[in-house]
Amino acid sequence: xxxxxxxxxxxxxxxxxxxxxxxxxxxxxxxxxxxxxxxxxxxxxxxxxxxxxxxxxxxxxxxxxxxxxxxxxxxxxxxxxxxxxxxxxxxxxxxxxxxxxxxxxxxxxxxxxxxxxxxxxxxxxxxxxxxxxxxxxxxxxxxxxxxxxxxxxxxxxxxxxxxxxxxxxxxxxxxxxxxxxxxxxxxxxxxxxxxxxxxxxxxxxxxxxxxxxxxxxxxxxxxxxxxxxxxxxxxxxxxxxxxxxxxxxxxxxxxxxxxxxxxxxxxxxxxxxxxxxxxxxxxxxxxxxxxxxxxxxxxxxxxxxxxxxxxxxxxxxxxxxxxxxxxxxxxxxxxxxxxxxxxxxxxxxxxxxx
Length: 354
What we know:
Layout: H1 2-29, E1 37-38, E2 41-44, E3 56-63, H2 88-105, E4 109-119, H3 127-135, E5 138-147, E6 162-170, E7 176-181, H4 190-193, E8 197-204, E9 210-217, H5 225-244, E10 248-254, E11 283-285, E12 300-301, E13 315-316, E14 319-324, E15 327-334, E16 347-353
Parallel strand pairs: 3-4, 9-10
Antiparallel strand pairs: 1-7, 2-5, 3-16, 4-6, 5-6, 7-8, 8-9, 10-14, 11-14, 12-13, 15-16
């Protein structure tokens, strides 16, 4: 009996040391990407030289869900089952099909979130390169959102180490792009939410000003009211500065807030109402000021279970655009894709610079 207890004690001690070592590794490897990081553009084919005042353009925003969120996918962080895409072959097929879907709308500008370049969960497939093949000629910016240490959970399908980021595409030549690091939780919760950022991409306009396109992905997991307020406050200050300099500002992406007015019953933390009353002077939600906005469809489904059609999961409108008042909206549409390629559906806006 003593020998058996001794063996059990040794085994428990080893397990405790392994667990402690792993926790130490996760915190030691945690490193935020530097703020105000200039981003390099990649040009494929030909681009126009500048945006023309008075001409109509289109822009799309799409959270791509790291290419894994086909309708049957449910995510462990939302209470679902899966951590990885179902297979490498299935992932590649979904990314290619999603890229073709985007290309069918032929947007002049495109911002995307949750695009993996090297991840355990996505079989180390470079989704950015795959999407370029489908979207075609233009200027591309890739902005690394986070590069995580190896997450050893779930036990039988560990989420692993992942590099994921934002894409900004333009068929007009990009002048510059900058990565801004959002404030995030400084507690243990930071391991859940990792790094967070937005990019500011500036494109010349024929009147000497700049079109400033913000690609945003606000925090979802492990946040509280102070983190949300800090992120929005920082974002709004940058938007105000660009607007004060006479530029045109389009801020789009995944806001991880409910963009509709009012609360949602039993909403998860990431679906709290967006504080529209805090928008800087001169800015509005684009769909709020365009009478013919088609926003009947929500843009995001909760991924606690597979999507089997309307009503099978909670849905929220979290994706969209904020614009400065020197921009006119001529079309606004939450595209109905039935969450075929991601847990989000894209939003398309046509606009004219005044």
